[in-house]
Each structure stands twice: as structure tokens, then as C-alpha cells.
Specification:
Elements (H helix, E strand, L loop, with lengths): L10 H23 L1 H8 L11 E8 L2 E12 L2 E6 L10 E3 L4 E9 L2 E8 L4 E6 H4 L3 H6 L7 E3 L1
């Protein structure tokens, strides 16, 4: 009969390794998506969130998808993106000024509308459901002073 020591690694070792692995994956995701670069310029730690924040929105940023794990909202200061608690290990909350949105496009695919925003000088693409951006449309339209080009299809 095999003893417990010979049957494999102890369960107590699994939990710390899982936490380290999760933190590493979240760090890689923030780098691949471009979130880390946005956080350098637009990171915020304010507790003063706009009333328009929508919970559990999905988004696609760069090469990564954030499904049902973001708060999305905005006010006159800019567009806010705030990840749920576990993602905040490597994803700072963002406040992107409206002047940094270089292009805005609304498209329909089958039955779903989505908004694609090109952010900052690198024109990183952020794609969110139009339902999350509906209350923010006046801000997007107000900043169309030559930088934002809107195409509605």
C-alpha cells in the first residue's frame, strides 16, 4: 500500500501554485490586450464613479476578450473601464478622456449592435456592446471636433 507521501504533491501546494498561475495569466492578458499601456496613461484610482456605470459588460481590447467582467461607464471626464475584483491584480481602472477617442464606429452583426472605439495615438481598438455605450453617445458625439469620425451602419 502506497503512503500519502508517495501518492503525489500535497493539496496544500496546489492552492499557492494556482494563485501564482492566475496572477501570471492576468499579467500576460493585460500586456497582450494593451490594457497595461492604457493604464500607464489613463489609470485612475478614484472612488468617484459615474452613475452610468454598467456592471458585467463585455469588451474586446486589442487581442483579448473580457467577457462579463467589466464595469463600463462615463461622464464629462471620459470613458471609464473598471474590471471586477480578481482582474484588478493586474488591470488598473481606467478613465480615458473623450479627446483620446480617435474614431467611433457602431455596427450591427446579426441581432447585436457593437461600438468600436480607437483609443489614443496607437489607436488601440476597444469593442463593446452598444447597449453599454448607449448613455454615453452624447459624449462621443460632442467630441467630434475632427478627431472622432463616426460611421453608423
Amino acid at each position: 500500500m502506497a503512503s500519502l507521501a508517495q501518492s503525489g504533491p500535497p493539496v496544500a501546494l496546489f492552492l499557492p501554485l494556482a494563485v501564482v498561475w492566475f496572477a501570471f495569466v492576468m499579467w500576460v492578458l493585460s500586456w497582450v490586450s494593451g490594457w497595461r499601456g492604457l493604464a500607464r496613461n489613463f489609470g485612475t484610482d478614484t472612488g468617484d464613479w459615474p452613475e452610468s456605470m454598467r456592471w458585467l459588460s463585455s469588451a474586446r481590447l486589442g487581442l483579448a476578450s473580457y467577457d462579463w467582467c467589466l464595469w463600463v461607464g462615463g461622464d464629462e471626464r471620459g470613458l471609464y473601464l473598471r474590471p471586477v475584483l480578481p482582474l484588478r491584480l493586474s488591470h488598473a481602472s481606467l478613465c480615458i478622456p473623450w479627446s483620446e477617442i480617435r474614431a467611433w464606429e457602431r455596427k450591427k452583426f446579426l441581432f447585436w449592435w457593437s461600438d468600436t472605439l480607437h483609443l489614443g495615438p496607437t489607436r488601440l481598438r476597444l469593442k463593446v456592446p452598444s447597449s453599454a455605450m448607449e448613455s454615453l453617445t452624447p459624449y462621443l458625439e460632442a467630441c467630434r471636433d475632427g478627431f472622432v469620425q463616426t460611421r453608423l451602419r
